[in-house]
Amino acid sequence: MNLTAPALAFFAKLFSGASVRWHECQPDTCQRVYFANHTSHLDALVLWASLPGPLRDLTRPVAAKDYWSKGAIRRYMARSFGAILIDREEIKVHQSPIDAMLHEIGSTHSLIVFPEGRRNTEEEMLEFKSGLYYLGKKRPDLELMPVYIDNLNRVLPRGEFLPVPLLSCITVGPPIWLDPGENKNDFLKRARQAVLRLKDV
C-alpha cells in the first residue's frame, strides 16, 4: 500500500458514513474471502476502507477493470487500495481470473469479491456466479465471509460521479466453507442465502 491508502480509507468512510457490524464472527488477519452484494461502484472501496487497519493492509478488493482503469483518478485510486482488476470482457481459459486472484493473494492476503458479477440495481439480489465456488474449491483453507452492504447505492447513485454523504451499514457474518461433495449450484445458493440472512440481523 502507498501513503495515500490511509487518506483514501478515511474519506471513503467519511462520505459513506459506513459502520461495520461483525455478526457471530470477529475481525481476524487469517486469509479470508469477503463476498458481498453489489449495488454501487463504491462497494469495493468502502468495504475495504471499513475493515480495521491490520485487516485492510492484508485485503485486496477484486474490481472491474473496465470501470477502474478509466481515467487517471480512478486508476490512481485502484492502485491506492490495492485492487485486483479483472477484465470482464475478455476472459480466456489460459488466463483464469480465479487463478489470477489466488496468485495475487499468495499465502497472506485476503480478497473482497462480488459474486453477482455486476452491479445490481434491482431490489432482489442476483444469482451468484461460479467464481466463489472455484475459490473455495481451489483454496479450501480460505474462510468465506458473507457480507451484506446496505444503502451504498444511494451514496453513489447510478450515473453520478460524486458521492452523496449518507449513512450506510456493512454486516459481516460467520464464515462458510465448501462442503465435501457439495455441487456448485447448491453451494452458490447457500452462499447467497448467507448474505441475505445478514439483511435482517
Uncertain runs are 160-165
- CATH level 4 superfamily: Glycerol-3-phosphate (1)-acyltransferase
| Mean pLDDT over the full residue set | 85
At the first level of CATH, the class is: Alpha Beta
Structure report:
- The chain is of the alpha/beta class.
- It has a single domain, classed as 3-Layer(aba) Sandwich (Glycerol-3-phosphate (1)-acyltransferase).
- Helix content is 36%, strand content 18%.
- It has a seven-stranded mixed β-sheet with strand order 1-7-6-2-5-3-4, with helices on both faces.
- Helix 1 packs across helix 2.
- The longest helix is centred in the last third of the chain and has 14 residues.
- It is globular, with a radius of gyration of 16 Å.
Key terms:
alpha/beta; 201 residues; Glycerol-3-phosphate (1)-acyltransferase; globular; 9 helices
Entry summary:
The protein is α/β, with parallel strands linked by helices. Helix content is 36%, strand content 18%.
